Amino acid sequence: MGATPPLLAFANVVKRRWDGARAMAVLDGVSFEIDDGAFVGLYGSRRSGKSTLLRMAAGLTLADEGSVRIDGQDLAKLAAPKRARLLRGTVGLVSADAFSPRPREDVIEYLTLALGSAGLTAGEARRRAYAALDEVGMAAVGLEATAALPVVERMGVMLARALLFDPRLLLVDEPAVIPSIGGREQFGALLHRLGQERKLAVLLASEELIALQGAVVTMSIGAGEVTSSDDTGVVVPFPGRGFQAVQRSAL
After folding, report:
1. For residue 37, how many C-alpha atoms fall within 13 Å in the half-sphere facing its CB?
2. pLDDT digits (tens, 9 = 90+) for 171-217
3. Alpha helices in the chain (DSSP H)
4. How many structural domains is the chain composed of?
5. Is residue 189 domain-resident?
6. Arithmetic mean of pLDDT, 126-147
7. In sequence order, what are the beta bridge partners of 217?
8. What backbone phi and psi angles, to 5 degrees, belong to 10?
9. Collapsing DSSP states into helix, strand and coil, what is residue 103?
C-alpha cells in the first residue's frame, strides 16, 4: 500500500488576478503540505494573497497552474458536485468576508440553513446547531439577530457554522478583524482548544504575528510566494509535526 497522502497539498500553484490587460501573480509557484492535526500559521500583510490561498484550500477558487489536493484528490479535476461533497465533510472556512446573513434571521436559522441538504429533521438541525454554538461558547446568542452581532460574536458564529460537518481542516482568515486584543486572544485560545480536542488541522492566516503564537509552523506570504528568509531554496523550511516543506521546482 502507498503512503497516506497529506490532508492538504499545494504543488507549484499559480493564481493570477487581472489589472486591465496585465496579469498579476497573487500566488507564484507555491508548494507546501499539511497533515492531520497540524496547527499552521500564515503571516502576511494586506493584499499579500492570504485570503486567496485559503479560498483555494477551500475549493472556492481554483488554481491557474499547479494543483491543490485534498486527501490526494486534485480539486480542479473534480466535477463541481463531487468537489462540494469532498470539501463539505473535510474543510471548514471561517472568514469575515463570507458572513452574509439574511434580513431578520436569527443565529440558529443562520446555522440550520447551512444544514439544509444534510437530510436532518428541523429538530435535529436545531440540536446540532445549538451543540456547535455551545462548543464555541456562543449558545446564549442562538436567538439573537445574526446581522446585529458584534464582530467577535460573528467570528464565533462562523466558527460554529464551520464545525457543523465535523471538518478535518479548519481555515481561519484574519482574526485581526476582532477589535479588542482580549477578544483576539480568546478566539485564538478557542482555536487551539478545538484543534487539540477535535484533532483538527488548522491553517490560520493573519497580518498580526501575535495572532499566530502557538502555531507549530509559521509560514509567510508576500510577492506571490510562501517563503522563509532562512533558506530560499525551500518554500517553508520550518520543521514541525504534521507539516512537510516542499522544495520549489526549478524555474
Report:
1. 6
2. 999 998 888 888 898 999 999 999 999 999 999 999 988 888 888 88
3. 50-57, 80-88, 107-114, 122-135, 151-163, 181-198
4. 1
5. yes
6. 95
7. 40
8. -100, 130
9. coil
The rounded distance, in Å, linking the Cα atoms of 45 and 26 is 13
Query: Does the pLDDT value for residue 111 go beyond 70?
Result: yes
Between 247 and 17, residue with greater pLDDT: 17
Tell me the whole-structure pTM to 2 decimals. Answer: 0.87
The answer to whether residues 40 and 204 touch, using CB atoms and an 8 Å cutoff, is: yes
Rounded-to-integer distance, Cα 84 and Cα 78, Å: 9
Residue 250 belongs to some domain of the structure: no
Residue 3 in any domain: the answer is: no
- Structural domain of residue 120, as residue ranges? 8-245
Buried b (16+ CB within 10 A) or exposed e, 197-226: ebebbbbbbbeeeebbeebbbbbbbeebbb
Cβ atoms of 216 and 242 closer than 8 Å: yes
Strand partners of residue 222:
225
Q: Residues 150-159: what's their mean pLDDT?
A: 93
Q: Which residue has the cell 439573537?
A: 144
Which set of grid coordinates corresponds to residue 141? 446568542
What is the CATH classification number for the domain harbouring 155? 3.40.50.300
